[in-house]
Amino acid sequence: MKTSLKDEFLSTLDGKKAEEILRRCVHCGFCNATCPTYQELSDERDGPRGRIYLIKQMLENGEATEKTRTHLDRCLTCRSCETTCPSGVEYSQLLDIGKQHIEKLVPRSFSDRTLRYGVTRILPNASWNKVMFRLARQFTFLMPDTFREQIPTEQPLKSYPSATKTNRTMIAFRGCVQQTATPNTVKAAKAVLSHLGIELIEVAQEGCCGAVNLHLSEHERAVQQAKRNIDVWWRYLEHGAEAIVMSASGCGVTIKDYPQLLVESPYYRERALVIAEKAKDLSEILLAEDLTQLPLKTSNERVAVHCPCTLQHGMKNKETYYEVLRRLGVEQTRKSEDHLCCGSAGTYSLFQPELSQQLLKRKMKALSEGDPEGIVTANIGCQLHLGSKAQVPVKHWIELIAERLEN
């Protein structure tokens, strides 16, 4: 794709990156075939190719409208298009650049800015979102249906059989929403890995991975969160921690992208490259171990396995995920449209509720094809979103495995 970006923008790191990405695009449109929003809306501007043209036009002319922002806001950043693209277009990076740019060109309304400000200050803070969830449960009758359904029910803490002898250490990344909404996920991971000789340690000083702020174009806040986490984790890695274990793929893909996020900070970017290598999805950790060591009870429970976009398109770990579940004896039901997003997409379900619900309805239909007794997933956002409509229990897959551990 030919470009003529403005010289002052082209001289920046974002400008150089945008031009590099734009020049890779060959207009083929394969991306639209796997784009959830294009499938739902059939509007060229709501597919990756159309959004690329909108961003290109904005970066070349220095102008944009609210309509442009609407089409960019509708993108889930599921990255299904990146999996499909034969030219290796890094669409999600271009979208981030475009969204940062349009925030300066087309100011949002006061109400929109206020809501986004509240979300970026409350959700990434585990203490605050815990209070928010408790209050929200008391006043659900005041909320619109789509918001009410997003409030997670309070989970009773469970106890899982654990081994006492471990000889290896890894860091358990707890996340911000996951540790308050589904606290049993990390507990289950700790129990399962203990039987493999691995101690998962929780690091109190770590914070949000930065995903919430990145979703809402709060780039600088995300940068500060990334730097803080790197400083905290680095000390543990120096003292022998082997990996940073991700039980939420939405966090995992964000941390994997730290080198790009910190490209303007050479000191932190160098460390971010190490962090990105050390950050592993939980399924990666288990696949590298001898799973016959796990004292698992047999089970005939049939489950539909949901593979989050962040895991299959972002972290490229789809096959690892399914292989681990197969080796662990999980009986999986049939389903279709595995590549399409469920509509959660971080904060998307809050800011694009109508489209999010359309995608959720479509995903639930696909997951229900094999009449499962439960649904498992690998990301907190997807878990809560699917759970808001599912007629069967929805849980993180590691909880399913931990429940099968013998005492």
Q: What is the CA-based Rg, rounded?
A: 21 Å
Helix content: 40-55%
Number of discrete domains: 3
**Mean pLDDT over the residues:** 93
Largest sheet geometry: 4 strands, parallel
Strand order of the largest sheet: 2-1-3-4
| Strand composition percent | 5-15%
CATH architecture of the largest domain: Up-down Bundle
Q: Could you please say which CATH topology of the largest domain applies here?
A: Glutathione S-transferase Yfyf (Class Pi), Chain A, domain 2
Helix segment count? 25
From the spread of the alpha carbons, the general shape counts as: globular
User: What's the end-to-end separation, in Å?
Assistant: 61 Å
CATH class of the largest domain: Mainly Alpha
Give an overview of the whole structure:
Helix content is 54%, strand content 7%. With 407 residues, the protein is an alpha/beta fold. It folds into 3 domains: 99 residues, Orthogonal Bundle (Fumarate Reductase Iron-sulfur Protein, Chain B, domain 2), CATH 1.10.1060.10; 119 residues, Glutathione S-transferase Yfyf (Class Pi), Chain A, domain 2 (Up-down Bundle), CATH 1.20.1050.140; 107 residues, Rossmann fold (3-Layer(aba) Sandwich), CATH 3.40.50.1860. Strands 2-1-3-4 form a 4-stranded parallel β-sheet. α15 packs across α18. The mean pLDDT is 93.
